[in-house]
Structures are given as C-alpha cells and as structure tokens.
Amino acid sequence: MNFQLDLHVWSVIFSSLCIMFGAVGAAFAQGKAIVAALEGIARQPQSAGEIRTTMIIGLALIESLAIYCLVISLILLFVRW
Amino acid sequence: MLNSFSTVMGIPVAGYSILSLASGTAGVAASGTGEVHVEQSMIDPAIIFNRHWISSTFHSVGGHHFIVVIMSLIIIAALAAFLAYCSRDLKVRRISAGQNFLELIYESLDGYVVSMMGPAGRKFLVLIGSLFIYILLSNYLGLVPGMEAPTANLNTTLALALVTFFSIHYYGLKTQGLKYLKHFAGDVWWLAPLMIPIHVIGELARPLSLSIRLFGNIRGEDIAICILFFLGVKAYFPFFHTPMLFLACFSCLIQALVFTMLSMAYISGALPHEEHDEEGGRGDDDKHKGAHK
C-alpha cells in the first residue's frame, strides 16, 4: 500500500474513523441509559414521566458527544486542505 | 464529472458553502488520486450546499447573501401573520378555530413547562415557548425544498444558546443576589481556587454544547438527506431519502424538545430551591433539580 497518500484522502479516512468511534460509543452509552430507564419504568410505572424526561436529557447529553464527532468529521471533509 | 453533474442538476458549483468553509474537497481528491474517481464527486455535499437559490436571485451585500437571516425572517413573518390572524377577535365563549388552536398550543406548552419547572416556572413560559416554537419551525423549514433551516447554521444556534445563557445568570442574580455568585466558590472555602474555574468552565460549556448539538443535528440531517437524494437521482430512484425524511421529522421535534428542556433545567438550577442538598457538583445538581417537581 502506498502510504504517500494525498492529504484529502487522509482527511476522508480519518473523518470516517472519527464518526465511527463517535457513533459506536454513543450507541453503547445510549443503549445502557435506555435499558436502565426502561427497567425503572417497568418497576415503577407511576414515575414514568420523570424517568422519561431525565432519560431524554441524558440522551441529549450523550448524543452531543457523537455530534461533536460529526462536526469534526464534517470539518475534516469540507475544509479545503 | 463535477461540472457535468452539477450542470445536469442545474446547480452552480462555486460560491456559498457550509460553515463558511471552502468547497470542492471531494472533487479535488477524486481528480488527485484517480482511484476513487467515479462516484465520489456525485455524493459531494459541497455541490448541494454551494449555492442557494437566494444567492443566485438576489445581490450580495458585502459578499454575504444572508440566507439564514432571510429564512429566519420568513419564519418570523409567517408566525407574526399567523398569530395576528388567529388572535384578531379573542372571545371567551364560542371561540374561533384560530383561537382554539392557539389555546391548544398555549396549554400544551404550559403543561410542558410546569411539568419541568413546577408552577413557579410559569413565568418562563414566554421564553421557553418562544424558543420551542422558533426552533421547531426552523427545523421543519429545512425539510421544505428550496429552503434552508436557520438552525443548520452555527450563528443562529449560538444566538439562541446565548439567550439561554444570559437568562440563566440574569434570573440567578435576580432571584438569589450575591448568594448566586457564592455557588461558584463551592461548599468549602479552601477549595474555591479550584472550584471557581471548574464552575466557570462548566457554565461556558453550556451554550457551547447547546448550540453545537442543535447545529450538528440539523446540519447532519440535511447533509444526509441531500446525499441520499442525490444517490437516488443517480440511480433513477428518487426515494432513497424518504425514510430519512421521516426520521428527520421525528428528530426535529426531539431537538426542539431537548433544547428547551435543557434550558429549563439550567434555568431552574439557577433559581433558589427549598430543599438544598450539599451533595455533588452544581452540574449534576441542577439536572436533578430540573427534573424534580
């Protein structure tokens, strides 16, 4: 493999890697959060509203990290290197 | 490839691009290496975001086309016209359909704010409800062909987040006075040199995360829809982006909800509360307080 690739190609490769790791981490974290929230709702259905609002806030905070990865990968893609 | 495709689609190449970053990355990369030549420029979103119809219709002012400002003004004008039309004759009995619709919106927003902040948070209904309606409409405007979401630009979302940021500290100082500033020093005085920078950084990270979350979500969705649409055009099957549109309809609502929900959590964290537990940092504290009635 030729390692003297162009800078554009490196930016495409690393932007895809960036969004990949961001999506994987955020997916696992959101899965854990949703599992915990669903268990809580199944145990106490009367507190479903509070659990849901807290879960959505937590999901937003987790997802913001994936969005940071998305923004960085977009910058890597669209900047004229 | 780039030129022929863009002339087929009727979209000029050079000019306006997202994030005010320069354009034409993938096309240059395609012509530079030769391996990835065929399909890359086709799914180059720089083509799509390069030039808007506004920028080719109207003259630029100082090199700017103010697409986002025009889109915001469209939303504001439509909202003002709609509200003026619906609230032209308000009655108590035998209300009109417009007033009924406005009352539906008001009551649902009121229930939303009260469920998050308690009855004391009803005075923030004006702020939160305005933010919600504006963000929701601007998210949905991005799904209309020919339009661009104002919230898909970092300037708009940063302005909205700064409104939240200043209202947090304004209401914190107004309701608690100097006691609000004492929160920044932490609980024990000898940790204050450590806690004050941490709290200041935490406060400054709030508008950053609020704005970048909204911007990244909406812009990412738009780019995904554009890429799928152009793939479908290339494959003579222009429905590739249809499931993404449904997902975007859902996600626009979620993003508006999340923005206002976090704003309410931050604002109610700055307000004085009766049961004051000394545990945990302020960042964790106010989220629990926000969800707590």
TrEMBL record, chain A:
State the CDD domains in the record.
ATP-synt_Fo_c (cd18121)
Q: Which Gene3D superfamilies match?
A: F1F0 ATP synthase subunit C (1.20.20.10)
Give a Gene Ontology cellular component term annotated to this protein: proton-transporting ATP synthase complex
- Molecular functions per Gene Ontology: lipid binding; proton-transporting ATP synthase activity, rotational mechanism
What sections of the protein cross the membrane? 12-35, 56-79
Which keywords does this chain's UniProt record carry? Answer: ATP synthesis, Cell membrane, CF(0), Hydrogen ion transport, Ion transport, Lipid-binding, Membrane, Transmembrane, Transmembrane helix, Transport
Write down the InterPro entries for this protein, in alphabetical order.
ATP_synth_csu_bac/chlpt, ATP_synth_F0_csu, ATP_synth_F0_csu_DDCD_BS, ATP_synth_F0_csu_sf, ATPase_proteolipid_c-like_dom, F/V-ATP_Csub_sf
Q: What is its main location?
A: membrane
Localisation: Cell membrane
Question: Which SUPFAM superfamilies would you find in this protein's record?
Answer: F1F0 ATP synthase subunit C
Recorded topology in the membrane? Multi-pass membrane protein
Keyword set includes Cell membrane: yes
Q: Where is this site: Reversibly protonated during proton transport?
A: E63
Family recorded in the similarity comment: Belongs to the ATPase C chain family.
Per the entry, what this protein does is: F(1)F(0) ATP synthase produces ATP from ADP in the presence of a proton or sodium gradient. F-type ATPases consist of two structural domains, F(1) containing the extramembraneous catalytic core and F(0) containing the membrane proton channel, linked together by a central stalk and a peripheral stalk. During catalysis, ATP synthesis in the catalytic domain of F(1) is coupled via a rotary mechanism of the central stalk subunits to proton translocation. Key component of the F(0) channel; it plays a direct role in translocation across the membrane. A homomeric c-ring of between 10-14 subunits forms the central stalk rotor element with the F(1) delta and epsilon subunits.
What's this protein's name? ATP synthase subunit c
State the organism named in the record: Candidatus Wallbacteria bacterium GWC2_49_35
